[in-house]
Design brief:
Radius of gyration of chain A: 41 Å
Largest interface: A-B, 73 and 57 residues
CATH class of one domain in chain B: Mainly Alpha
Number of strands of chain A: 31
Strand order of the largest sheet of chain B: 6-14-9-10-11
Helix content of chain A: 40-55%
Structural class of chain A: alpha+beta
Largest sheet of chain B: 5 strands, antiparallel
CATH topology of one domain in chain B: f41 fragment of flagellin, N-terminal domain
Number of helices of chain A: 9
Largest sheet of chain A: 5 strands, antiparallel
Number of strands of chain B: 15
Oligomer: heterodimer
Order of helices and strands of chain B: HHHEEEEHEEEEEEEEEEEHHH
Radius of gyration of chain B: 41 Å
CATH architecture of one domain in chain B: Up-down Bundle
Strand order of the largest sheet of chain A: 14-21-16-17-18
Structural class of chain B: alpha+beta
CATH superfamily of one domain in chain B: f41 fragment of flagellin, N-terminal domain
Strand content of chain A: 15-25%
Strand content of chain B: 15-25%
């Protein structure tokens, strides 16, 4: 019945509930993810009493949670971006720190090695200087390997972080699915604010690990999609993510979705944003390229020094041997290959070598090579046999066996090089400081030409023996080998090298017709010959890498500054994104957060209203008592 | 605009953290003295610093190389000075011996002194540096370059010498081969030698001669034959070149050269003029010793031989002077490149310092500014955080 008493009682009940809500807000002021709740009061149904509609009081029509979907989505997307950049920047900064030690960095150690070559050139027959050179070679090797093994350590840390993040994603996904079920079960009645807050908090946490998008279902459930639209939670069903080994390299983890029956689908390329996105990007954009670039430097060092060693003579009179050993090209078959082919890959052209990885695939009856970093196809020459191997990008590939259609291999020309770098020479006498050949002027020469340099430039084509350079005029010469066959001839200019069979002799002055010069293998008595040391110094400072554009020192310096640029960029991005995230969080918090002053004011307001209603009830009682008193008094008279 | 309580607190804390992080960075710069600690701080700057450090290290190495080379070259200079002194004494002895009134024993005395000088020359030619490497052996620095069998000295060293790198684009020879210093000296006067025939009976002698017109000289062997004590003929492979009458002393000129014959040649005596090759200082001295010890040569032949030896000794001294001058020039080049290197290194170090070292004044000022900022943030937060409507409710 609509009357003073019942109306006032409705007010008491309503304001009590409003005070409860206010108390809920105040106690949850510091709770993360809590959305401020507002009690909605509405006028109760009235009753028609013939003289008019009398109101029925007030009732609580619902408790609304202050929540803006758009602001929440902005928080999640900026959180995912920030986490991604931050993770990426942290990985990059590790490598940057490692490489940046000024004064003891790679360029300094390389220069120390070159300085040691100069010192041997100053006194080539001195054992002490040669021993110092071997020590510097060891120091260089150790530094390169320490960088390489640190990068490998960081890579394996990244893999374990990926595993951990995937487990976190999975546990959040099942929480969200459970909450979806509970929220759907709450029906279309009052909104289950506490459940909704919890689900939002879980989705926010999920956005730290990966990009998140949500789609609302009609029953109140939220479908969650991660990365580039991969479904993670559909209604009350949560998909599971798992890590699967990369088909080429079991130590590298891919992220897969577990389907029905346990089948896994690799969705690594669909993952972006969050820690997972940052870790995957760090793998492909920093760690692998840095290790490859370091490997290219190791290959450059080893190739140039070894070739020059073999172009010279050591203290014992023997041809110099390789100073360094180096890790081989990594050739990784796809785990799902069904054919029986095997590959043998070697590095053959230092200038054409890159720090990219390559995929060799057999399809449509032919082998095709593509660059995995750029995605571009790479043209190969040759047929792949041992006598005519495939050649491209500085490597040479020999294929044997029978491939099946679709078989493929991952070829990593420089990744494993540094781990296998080692100084092979132990005896200082093995350093080839002297030239492999000597040239002497004929005793009957009448011209003024003298020998200024004699050396082997290509040990693989040089044929040891005695050669004679004979001048038929002041400008024309012929070079004959020991059998009398002419192996080279040409026009002579003072200072321009005369080349033949991988060797080269430089004369200065003017020869006369009939003058001869004999080129023969160098003798061990020429222990003071340092011409090969200078050839080695020149080779190391030459632009031998990257298509003839970069020297060894240049490549080392480029690595440091490129990592520096990437790190600086990533740190700037992370910082900018942090600001964006902070303002998105602030915007959401301004809508959904509790303001204590506001709650204090509300508390005062509802308290006042409650007291007023209580007073009304007192009044109703007074009115009733007056009536009863009047009746009682009337009957007594 | 509505602001949530916890949002206000988080913002204030975030701002304080940002200020603290900036202070930490500035403090780290001050304590390490470096404004570029990582490549990420300034990638191009770091690359430049690395490059400059490499150049600095290379420059220091070139100075070291130069020191090693000039030490050896000074030893070489000393050896050459000593050798020149010995040759000059040999010259004096040869002039002394060129006196027709000397007795045979007096000449043998001189020959004995020359023998000592020959041994001294061989010793100088085989001198070593402080590490036992031979100065004049070229590449074959561990093996003694000059071998002596009796009075015959041969060179078994190398024909090429080491180079040393004294600057980024300069490599110079670190020494000279024994061949170029001691062996490849001009015979005769450098163009031709003269000799008296062993069958001569007269007292005529011939000097070393000279070239009057290099373009007119036709290389070949010429014979000056005396048909009578006053008439001579000059013939070569083509035939008679010139002829004339002779009085002592008489200049005979032909084909761009001239020689002077003195004394009284007998009829049938002859002298030869032949193209000159190389003569070593050792063979010059040892031939002179043999000449002076001879009991069969007559005065004219003796005089001719001593004339030739004097000429060759002069040529050897000139050659040695030339080598010494080139050594001096190389030492100068090393000194000059080292002083250039000093100023280069100073420049490099100051560039490196400018790029990588922190400016203490600016950094200290920045630190105090940041400290003030942080203090202000902390104080203001402390007072604002206490404000709440609940404080005023009964």
């Amino acid at each position: 019945m609509a009357d003073l008493l019942s109306t006032s009682v409705s007010g008491l009940l309503a304001f009590q509930e409003a005070l409860d809500t206010t108390s809920q807000n105040v106690t949850n002021v510091d709770t993360t993810g809590y959305s401020v709740e507002t009690t909605n009061l509405s006028e109760a149904q009235g009753q028609s009493l013939g003289t008019g509609y009398v109101g029925g009081g007030v009732e609580v029509s619902g408790i609304t949670r202050a929540y803006d979907e758009l602001l929440a989505a902005q928080v999640r997307s900026s959180q995912a971006s920030y986490s991604s950049f931050n993770t990426f920047a942290t990985q990059a900064a590790q490598i940057d720190n490692m490489l940046s030690a000024s004064g003891t960095g790679l360029t300094t150690t390389l220069q120390n090695f070159v300085n040691a070559l100069q010192t041997v050139a100053n006194s080539p027959s001195s054992t002490a200087q040669r021993q110092a050179l071997l020590s510097d070679a060891q120091a260089l090797t150790q530094q390169l390997q320490s960088y390489d093994s640190q990068i490998s350590q960081y890579s394996s840390d990244v893999e374990s972080q990926i595993s951990t993040s995937v487990s976190q994603v999975n546990s959040l996904a099942s929480n969200i699915a459970t909450l979806n079920q509970q929220i759907a079960a709450a029906g279309s009645g009052q909104s289950p604010n506490q459940l909704l807050d919890q689900r939002d908090a879980d989705i926010d946490q999920l956005s730290q690990y990966v990009n998140v998008n949500t789609v609302a279902e009609s029953n109140g459930a939220l479908d969650v999609f991660i990365g580039n639209g991969q479904p993670l939670v559909l209604g009350d069903a949560a998909q599971q993510l798992t890590t699967t080994p990369d088909p080429y390299d079991a130590s590298s983890l891919n992220i897969s979705l577990v389907g029905s029956g346990g089948a896994t689908a690799n969705i690594t390329s669909e993952i972006s944003g969050g820690t997972l996105g940052g870790l995957l990007a760090a793998k492909t954009q920093i760690l692998d390229p840095a290790q490859n670039a370091l490997g290219l430097i190791s290959v450059g060092l080893s190739t140039l020094v070894n070739q020059q060693q073999q172009s010279g003579m050591d203290l014992t009179g023997a041809q110099g041997q390789a100073m360094f050993s180096i890790g081989a090209v990594e050739t990784l078959p796809d785990a799902s290959n069904t054919g029986s082919s095997t590959l043998a890959v070697t590095r053959t052209n230092l200038g054409a070598l890159t720090s990219d990885d390559y995929q060799l695939q057999y399809s449509g009856g032919a082998w095709q090579l593509s660059d995995t970093t750029t995605g571009q196809a790479v043209t190969m020459t040759g047929t792949g046999t041992s006598t005519d191997p495939f050649q491209a990008a500085g490597i040479s590939i020999t294929v044997s066996g029978t491939p099946a259609n679709g078989d493929s291999y991952l070829i990593r020309p420089t990744a494993g090089a540094t781990a296998g770098l080692a100084v092979q020479l132990t005896n200082p006498a093995q350093i080839a400081a002297a030239s492999l050949i000597q040239a002497t002027a004929g005793t009957g020469n009448t011209g003024t030409a003298q020998v200024s340099a004699a050396g082997v430039t290509d040990p693989s084509t040089y044929t040891p023996g005695t050669y004679t350079i004979a001048f038929t005029s002041a400008t024309a010469y012929q070079v004959k080998n020991g059998a009398g066959t002419v192996v080279s001839s040409g026009t002579y200019t003072s200072g321009t090298p005369i080349t033949f069979n991988g060797a080269q002799v430089t004369l200065s002055g003017t020869p006369a017709n009939g003058d001869t010069f004999t080129v023969s293998p160098n003798s061990a008595t020429n222990s003071g010959d340092n011409s090969n040391m200078f050839a080695m110094i020149d080779a190391l400072s030459s632009s031998a890498l990257v298509g003839g554009t970069t020297s060894l020192s240049g490549a080392a310096n480029n690595l440091v500054s490129q990592i520096g640029v990437v790190t600086q960029q990533a740190q700037a991005n992370a910082s900018a994104q942090q600001t964006v995230n902070q303002s998105a969080v602030d915007a959401r918090s301004n809508v959904s957060g509790v303001n204590l002053d506001e709650e204090a004011a509300n508390m005062l307001q509802y308290q006042q209203a409650y007291q007023a209603c209580a007073q009304m009830i007192q009044t109703s009682s007074t009115v009733f008592n007056s009536l009863i008193t009047a009746i009682t008094d009337g009957s007594a008279a | 605009m509505r602001i949530s309580t916890v949002g206000f607190q988080n913002d204030a804390v975030a701002q304080m953290q940002a200020l603290e992080s900036a202070i930490a960075k500035t403090q780290s710069e001050l304590s390490t003295g470096l404004q570029i600690q990582n490549a990420a701080d300034n990638p191009t700057g770091m690359a430049q610093v690395n490059e400059l450090n490499v150049q600095l290290s290379a420059s220091q190495q070139y100075v070291t190389n130069g020191n090693a080379a000039s030490a050896n070259m000074k030893l070489e200079e000393q050896a050459l000075t000593q050798a020149t002194t010995v040759l000059q004494s040999a010259q004096d002895l040869a002039v002394q011996a060129n006196n027709s009134s000397l007795s045979a024993s007096e000449r043998q005395n001189i020959a004995a002194q020359l023998q000592q000088q020959l041994q001294e020359l061989v010793g100088i030619a085989n001198s070593t540096d402080s590490n036992g490497n031979y100065l004049f052996a070229g590449y074959a620095s561990s093996t003694q370059p000059f071998a002596q069998a009796g009075n015959s000295v041969s060179y078994t060293g190398a024909d090429a010498v080491n180079q040393i790198q004294i600057s980024a684009n300069q490599r110079i020879s670190a020494g000279d081969t024994g061949a170029s210093v001691f062996m490849n000296n001009p015979a005769g006067n450098g163009t031709f030698t003269t000799a008296a025939a062993s069958t001569n009976t007269g007292t005529g002698s011939i000097d070393a001669g000279s070239v009057t017109s290099p373009a007119a000289w036709v290389p070949g062997t010429y014979t000056i034959s005396f048909t009578s004590p006053t008439a001579y003929q000059v013939t070569n492979s083509a035939g008679v070149v010139t002829s004339g009458t002779y009085t002592s002393p008489g200049t005979i000129a032909f084909d761009g050269v001239q020689v002077t014959v003195s004394g009284a040649p007998a009829a049938g005596d002859s002298f030869t003029v032949a193209p000159a090759g190389n003569a070593s200082v050792f063979s010059t001295v040892s031939n002179l010793i043999t000449t002076l010890n001879s009991t069969t040569l007559n005065q004219g032949q003796m005089t001719t031989a001593i004339n030739g030896a004097l000429e060759q000794l002069g040529g050897a001294i000139t050659n040695m002077d030339n080598v010494q001058a080139s050594v001096g020039a190389r030492i100068d080049a090393i000194n000059s490149s080292q002083s250039t290197a000093q100023s280069e290194q100073t420049d490099l170090q100051s560039s490196i310092s400018q790029l990588s070292n922190v400016d203490y004044t600016a950094a200290t000022t920045q630190l105090s500014t940041e400290e003030v900022g942080l203090q202000a943030a902390q104080e203001s937060y402390a007072s604002l955080a206490k404000l709440s409507l609940f404080n005023f409710l009964d």
